[in-house]
Design goal:
The protein has 98 residues and is mostly helical. The protein contains three helices and no strands.
């Protein structure tokens, strides 16, 4: 078969590699061309999403089921997270042990 009958065949022997231009001028030209074609800026936009909480330490206390229910009920009644109750209980403990 001749090369004309196989339109999608590639002669791997003729392929050559080129080094990518890394000069500031080449990057500038690429940036200008990208902007003209609607591509966005390469610079990062900063961290997206939810801001980190100041309460980063997690305490996973295993308690008896009745204690867990009482803590959850008190947190719901007061409209706070269960961690707030744990923090308050810890403060009371520290005051009593001094």
């Amino acid at each position: 078969m001749s090369d004309q009958t196989k339109p999608f065949s590639i002669d791997l022997g003729n392929l050559r590699t080129r080094r990518k231009e890394v000069s500031t001028e080449a990057i500038g030209r690429a940036d200008v061309a990208a902007e003209q074609h609607g591509f966005v800026n390469r610079e990062g936009q900063g961290r997206r999403g939810r801001r980190p909480s100041p309460r980063t330490g997690q305490v996973h206390a295993k308690v008896m089921p009745n204690v867990a229910e009482e803590i959850a009920e008190e947190a719901r009644r007061r409209g706070v997270q269960q961690g707030v109750l744990v923090e308050e209980a810890w403060e009371l403990y520290k005051q009593q042990t001094r």
